């Protein structure tokens, strides 16, 4: 009965256009569990040592949920798993030329390392570094498995569309893509953060899960960067019910990688990838 009374009161309070406007304005200062935070002065959970005035993006992404942004070269993006059950499934694009996008095969091949961690470049198929993992307290990531699809979620949970309680990751990424002028043809395989997968000796995948609450991973944009992100269960997550908790995103003005960073010269192949990126940007007048 209480919920019915609440519904009646809400309907009566928005019966006219003026009432609807007043109701919406009255809710304007009410925070939600998952929402973007702007201006920076309103941002909770500010990362230690980060100047509020340098923030360009601060958001709590619902579990499940999605987000997207285009940021400048040199932006540092921190993803945080506060409760231990987030799964950030990420796609990256060169904002200058979105056809140049994350290539997970090259991201594993060029560094001679299949497992993501601090110092790992995230590459496009053009041999350029889109972003670098510059810090990592989780160590539980995956660049092997596809994101979940609507059909698989329907079989497992009963629903998989974006508006359901159990949306598939691909459905959420499609929404994020549309808001950046992209579509289904523009969605390559993604990388997943906070969901550990390892390859067993027999070639099968071994599920490691999360490293626990409070871990974080930092990326630095090496080019003007578009990022799409879905926060939804990993395809290998063995939990019997759909389980995902909120994800925090903070991004602030910083500097791109340079020759003094150890990952720049860790291998000859990495050096070439960073130099390819520098040449590409220099030809476009971007420092």
Write the layout of secondary structure elements.
Blueprint: H1 2-13, H2 17-26, E1 55-61, E2 65-71, E3 75-81, E4 88-94, H3 104-109, E5 121-123, E6 129-136, E7 141-142, H4 150-157, H5 169-178, E8 191-193, E9 196-199, E10 205-209, E11 215-221, E12 225-231, E13 247-253, H6 268-283
Antiparallel strand pairs: 1-13, 2-12, 3-11, 3-13, 4-8, 4-12, 5-6, 6-11, 7-8, 9-10
Describe the structure.
The chain is α+β, with helices and mostly antiparallel strands. It has one domain. Helix content is 22%, strand content 26%. Strands 1-13-3-11-6-5 form a six-stranded antiparallel sheet. A five-stranded antiparallel sheet has the order 2-12-4-8-7, with helices on one face. Strand 9 and strand 10 (205-209) form a beta hairpin.
List keywords for this structure.
alpha+beta, six-stranded antiparallel β-sheet, 6 helices, 22% helix, disordered N terminus
Helix/strand class: alpha+beta
- In whole angstroms, how far apart are the ends? 63 Å
SSE arrangement, N to C: HHEEEEHEEEHHEEEEEEH
Instruction: Enumerate the strands of the largest sheet in spatial order, edge to edge or round the barrel.
Output: 1-13-3-11-6-5
